[in-house]
Amino acid sequence: MPNYTTANWVKSQLALNGAMAKQDTRFRSPEIWKLFLKNTEQFFPNHKELKGRDDKVLEANFFTRTSRGLGTGRSHNHAGSKGDSGVLQPTWVTRNDKFATSIKQADTSVFSFQQELDNELLNVVANFMEGMDSVASTYLVNNRTGVNLASVEGTFNATNDVYEINEASKGVYATQIAKTVMNINKYQNVRLTFVCDPIAFHRFEREAAQGAQNATNYSFQFLGVDFVLDISLTSKAASILPAYATKGFFEVIPQNTIGALTWIPKQNRNGYEDTEGMYSTILNPFDGQQYAVHSYSERFDGTATNGFTQDVKTEVEISLDVALEKAPLSVATETPIYAFALV
Q1: Which end of the chain has the smaller Cβ count within 10 Å, N or C?
Q2: Predicted local distance difference test score (pLDDT) of residue 10
C-alpha cells in the first residue's frame, strides 16, 4: 500500500532496524554511469559556470587530424595546407524524480516524519542511480564505432558494427585480441575498460585468475585492463543480433574518451526561497554529484494519502541536467567505443 498506511498504529507493531530493514530498497552500484563521471572536469573545465541557463548552448572546440602522405625531395617554392578544428556541442537532457509529503502523514505511524522523508530521498537516489546507469549503458551501445581498421584473428561486421571473434578457436584469447584491435586503431599504451555482459565477465574473470602456476596460463593478457559488469548488455546485444547474446558480448573504451557533463541552475546552487517555492541542492553520496531540489507547499485534504482533512502537502522534485559525450572524431561514424562479440 502507498503512503505508509501499513505502518499506522492500528495494532501492535514495530519497525525493522539495521540491514534487515534495507533489503527492499537496495540498488545496484552505477558502475557504467561512474565511468562517464571520471573525466568530466578534465574534458570540460568551468562548464557549470559557462552554462547559465537550461536553454543556453555550449560549444567545445578541438583540433582535427590532417593526414598527408609524405613527399620526396626539397623545393624553393613549396606550398602547404592549413589544419582545421571542429566543434562539439553537448546534448543536454534533464532527468528528474518526484515525490510528495504531508505534515500529518506520520501522526499515526510507527515511523517518524523524518524517517519517511529519508525513505523518500533514498528511493530518489536509487531511482537516479539505476536510471542513469541504464542511460549510460544504452549510450555506449548506441554509439559504438562504425569504423575499425583491424582484421586480426576476427572480423569486423560492418553491418552490425561489432568485431566478431570465433569462440571455439580464439575465445580464450579474446582479451588479447581485443587489445591488439585497439592498438591497430591507434589506442596504444592506454588503459582499457571492458564493459561486459555476464557471460563475458565470468569468462574474463575466470581466465584472469589462471596464473603462472596453472597448467594453462591466460593471465598475461589482462595487464592494463579493467572489467565492469553490465547485466543489461545481454538484451542489448540480442537486439543487435540474437547470436551475440549467447557466448559473450563486450565493449572496450580507452581511458579518457568518454565523459558526462552535469549541471543544475544557479538558483539551486546559490539557494533561493519565496512564497512560491524553494530552490536548493542535495549531494548524492553514491556519485558525488549535486542535484537540484525544487519544492513548494500547498494546503489540501490529505485523507486519501494517509494525512488528514486540514493538511499541508509539499511537492518535491529532484533533477539533474546531463550530457553524455564521447571524444569527437573527424569521421562521422568513428567513435572510441568498440563492440566485440564471441560467436
Answers
A1: N
A2: 46
